[in-house]
Amino acid sequence: MKITPYAPLLCAAALAGLSLVSVSLRAADDPEAISPAVLKKYDANHDGVLDETEKASWQADRAKEQAAREARKAEDLAKYDTNKDGKINRDERGAMKADDEKARAEKKAAQEARKAEKAAQAEAKKLAKYDKNGNGKLDDDELAAMKADEDKRKAAAEKRKATIESNRKAAEDEQEAEHE
Prior knowledge:
Blueprint: H1 6-29, H2 36-42, H3 52-80, H4 90-130, H5 140-179
């Protein structure tokens, strides 16, 4: 019997897969193996342990995520596997990356367009509020009025911030006094 050089690799991969499955099953049973993020999201009664319904919810979400990953993989195969061998080769991966970069660029352009639109709306709002003579631009006296309003807003924000900080400090002092 001839042993191919890939046989030990396949066995190692299978064993690694089994160990991952056992680790994830152990994580569901061992509260110390469950991450704090999972506890925060799924521990509905906040007792620090996932009961059966909480575990079921967690496992259902994990199954949905796995199904979504498999669906994306199937979509990628259908779209990019041009030679229909069931794998994405280097050339196909290049096409996939190019499409991803194009999508990222389009998303960034859309974000920048929204940002520019907001800036334009803010500018139009300023003009509508402060352009008293209606000439489409802010003159010196109109700019002074706008600056005065901005200074008032900044002063009010600083006052709110100081009040919040003072309240926080008072609460800390109160807690310290209770512990003494």
